Amino acid sequence: MNNRKLYNCRSRLGVGHPRADPDRRRVLAAGLAALWGCTIPSNVSAADTVVLRKAAAEKGLLYGTTISAEQINDDHEFVGLVLQQAGLVVAENDMKWQVMNRGAPGDDDYSPADTVAGFALENGLALRGHNLLWYHRTPSWYFDLATPQEQERAIIERVQHLAGRYRGMVHSWDVVNEPIEPKDGRKDGLRSGVFLETIGPDYLDLAYRVTRETDPTARLVVNEYDVEFDTPEQEARRTALLNLLERMRRSGTPVDAVGIQAHLSCIGGPPFSASRLRRFLADVAGFGLTIQITELDVTDEHAPSDQAIRDRLVADAYRQFLDAALDEPAVKMVVTWGLSDRHSWIVRQETHQSKWRSDGALSRPLPFDADLKAKPAYEGIANAFAHAPGRAVG
């Protein structure tokens, strides 16, 4: 089967107009999903008894994973696994501003993002938008804009163009990714740098309000990292995030959910306290917000070289974290940052070097290995779903 033939998505999605007809989308979703007809590879049959999306759905949770246009077009077996296991997909990199932009204002390549959105549409999967603004993936030309007004206009156009293109199709948007950094020394705990330097803290309100106006049905998320563990540094990050949410509530900034990235380590990392995590999640829920686990994976950089031991330690880290997190009924979503080690940013060594193994062995951070075979991590996640309390679907 040639997967490429289905993904000339501009006409199918109706994305040339920001108000693409929802009835047309539903018809496409029903008809084209049947055409796609992807076969589940035989080497994952051992995992067929527990499908993660189904196990999650039984408890009111939505389970998903990352995917890319390249994987959709070129890795048929992996796509089959995604269709089997996931109820949601998120573009790992294809929607990031710097990745999309070809070097000039407005010169954005939507083709990879269209492929991911089309894949979700055609297969009845929920779609997360990741992300609209992120300090780490901002086009270089943005830094050369001379006035706050020019920067504000660039933010507005970025949001309107991307969120408008997929209006009505996106479950939730990471509107601003990683907005806090207490180490920068600001009293408000916000990250210094690109958006803050000339616009000031109001850039957050601007981004969220424009996103709400552009796509009123999408859930708007503040996505943040290093708020899971029991260290003074992460406690400061939790406090800064809670303070930001309080300010957003007071100012009427539209926000619906908090994303907890949850990039974990199976051994040798910061200490974990289930009770502290539960308290923090309860504090977030106290704002009337839902919670999404958005980028869950587990590094094994300090684990023994023995593969069976490593796999068990990784599985234990997944289960320990999820057992605590899923006690909070406001947690409505779990997304692993990848499904198979074949396509992991950790295996590709795109993480900080401190997360790399020193013995030359490939990391094994995800539920399925590079051959798409289920690992103990898969069992750990499935067991956490099975033991989680039920909740209202969010």
| CATH H-tier superfamily of one domain | Glycosidases
Lateral arrangement of strands in the main beta sheet: 1-2-3-4-5-6-8-9
What is the alpha-carbon Rg in Å?
A: 20 Å
Shape: globular
Give the class-level CATH name of one domain. Answer: Alpha Beta
What is the percent of helical residues? Answer: 25-40%
- Summarize the helix and strand pattern as letters: HHHEHHEHHEHEHEHEEHEHEH
The low-confidence parts are 1-12, 15-47
The largest sheet is: 8 strands, parallel, barrel
Compute the number of strand runs: 9
Q: Mind telling me which CATH architecture of one domain this is?
A: Alpha-Beta Barrel
Overall residue-averaged pLDDT value: 90
Strand share of the residues?
A: 5-15%
Q: Given the helix and strand composition, which structural class is it?
A: alpha/beta
CATH fold naming of one domain: TIM Barrel
Distance between the termini: 36 Å
Number of helices: 13
